[in-house]
Structures are given as C-alpha cells and as structure tokens.
Amino acid sequence: MSKHDDNAAAEEELGDESKSIIFSMISQFTRDMDLSRITFPTFVLEPRSFTERVTDFIASKSDDPVQRFVGVVKYYMSGWHIHPRGVKKPYNPILGEFFRSQYEFDDASGAYFVAEQVSHHPPITAMFYHSPEHRIAIEGDLRPLSRFQGNSVGMLLGGYAKIHFLDRPGEIYEVTYPNMYARGILFGKMVLELGEMSTVTCKHNDLVFEVEFKTKGILWGAYNQIAGKIRRISTNETL
After folding, report:
1. How far is the C-alpha of 200 from the C-alpha of 68, rounded, in Å?
2. pLDDT score of 6
3. What is the reported pLDDT for 238?
4. What is the DSSP letter of 144?
5. What separation in angstroms does the CA of 15 have from each of 12, 22, 36?
6. Which tens digit of pLDDT belongs to each residue from 77-120?
7. Which of 90, 101, 10, 86 lies closest to 55 in space, CA to CA?
8. Which residue has the higher pLDDT, 212 or 146?
9. DSSP secondary structure code for residue 234 in this structure
C-alpha cells in the first residue's frame, strides 16, 4: 500500500460552497490568532465534543518494570490512530459539560471514565479513568490552544496525564502530548497530522520514552512518520 493510500482516511476535499464559507471566515483571521473563541460551521466539526474525544486514549501486569513501561507506551501510541475521516474539529464543550462512560472487559472486570470541561476560556478538559479490578487509575487534563498559521491551523496540546499502578506505590507514568495540525486550509487537500515531541516518563523506574512526530515538508517528506526511543534517565542508555 502506498503512503498516499495510508493517509487517504485523513484527507478531505471540500465542495465549492463549503470552500466559500471557509474563505469568508479566514479573511477575518490574523496569523497566530487564537481560534478557541471562533464558531465554526458544522461541516468542519466532528460529531463529538472534546470531552468525549479524550476517550480515544482509554497495561501491563508484568513484574518486569521495563515490560510494564513498554506496555504503557503501546497503550499511549495506539490511541493516536483513532480519528474521523478528513479534518474535523471537535465541538467546543460548554463550561460544566461532562462525558461519562463505562467499559466491560472480556474477563468480566470493568472501568469507568469521566471528563468535564472545567474552564471555557482558556479551554481545559479534566479527565479521570479507573479500573478497580486491574488497579489502574489515570488522571489528567487537556489544554488545547488553536492558532491560525496561513494554510494550516495548529492545535497546541498542553496539559498532562498521569497513569497510576495502584498496587505499585510511587510508580507513576507522566505523559505529554504532541501538537496537531490541519493542513490545506486555503489550498490543497485538507490533511490532519501530528507534530513535535511527546514523552512518557516514569521517574520511579528511571525510564523515559521520547517520540518525535515528523511533519511533512512543503517540497519533500511524507505523512505519518515518527521516530522514538526508550532510554534510562540516569545513564541516557537507549534500550
């Protein structure tokens, strides 16, 4: 399968009427303008609120700390493949809006998730996940900041997530997020891609995972390229 085919699900071509609406909106934008206060037409919105979309990221039982760390990294990285077709912006939640869900696993255990919009400007979504039988809890928040960048819109994903293995005191995995970019706003196909660095860190076990999401250049490069490694924090040794 070609790289173009691999990225087809993330591409979208707008009709003439939709383009005219987009161009009318963009004529009012300035570079690096904060887009969190802008009301978007529904055809560029994903039919979910941001409080629901954080469930896209919702380990390991091994006694080996390295294997547990690898399990957390696999869980974290697997969440990034879930996105709607084309370039879609989640609906902005209203202050106090919440999303709750319950999960039932094959072993008859379960888990619970809740996300709430705790601030509207700036937008902050707080979240909590708990699986009592598996002794796992996840807490964190997302602080997206949107910026208009000419032919692109960038979403800078601030915030954090902390993964707790409750039967292993002190073993906490701290996660940071990459940024997201919607390309082709003015010309070309609209494409969603990730960019910059993201990390998973467990200071208790002296391990860090660093991954770079590489953005496609104007004249060269390809979509969906990443480079990452797991290393010891104290010695910088790559595992």
Report:
1. 12
2. 52
3. 95
4. E
5. 10, 11, 25
6. 877 765 555 555 566 778 999 889 898 877 788 889 999 999 98
7. 101
8. 212
9. T
Indicate the residue type of 62: S
Say if residue 228 is exposed, middle or buried (CB neighbours under 10 Å; 0-12, 13-18, 19+): middle
Neighbour tally for 101: CB within 10 Å: 13
Sign of the torsion formed by the C-alpha atoms of 56, 179, 174 and 70: positive
d(CA 102, CA 237) in angstroms, rounded, equals: 40
Which residue(s) pair with 126 in the sheet?
116, 141
Task: Give the pairing type, strands 190-202 and 11-12.
Answer: antiparallel
3-state secondary structure of 20: helix
CA 236 and chain centroid, separation: 27
Residue 49 confidence class, pLDDT cut points 50, 70, 90: very low
Residue 21 and residue 39 in contact, taking contact as beta carbons nearer than 8 Å: no
**170 CB contacts (<8 Å, ≥6 apart)?**
204
Res. 45: pLDDT tops 50: no
**Rounded distance between C-alpha atoms, residue 76 and residue 64, angstroms:** 19
**Residues forming beta bridges with residue 69, ordered by sequence position:** none
Question: CB-based burial of residue 220 (10 Å sphere; 0-12 exposed, 13-18 middle, 19+ buried)?
Answer: exposed
Dist. CA 32–CA 36, nearest whole Å: 12
Q: What is the rounded distance in angstroms from the CA atom of residue 152 to the CA atom of residue 145?
A: 14
Beta strand extents in the chain (DSSP E only): 11-12, 45-49, 89-91, 98-104, 110-119, 124-131, 136-148, 152-165, 172-175, 179-183, 190-202, 207-214, 225-232
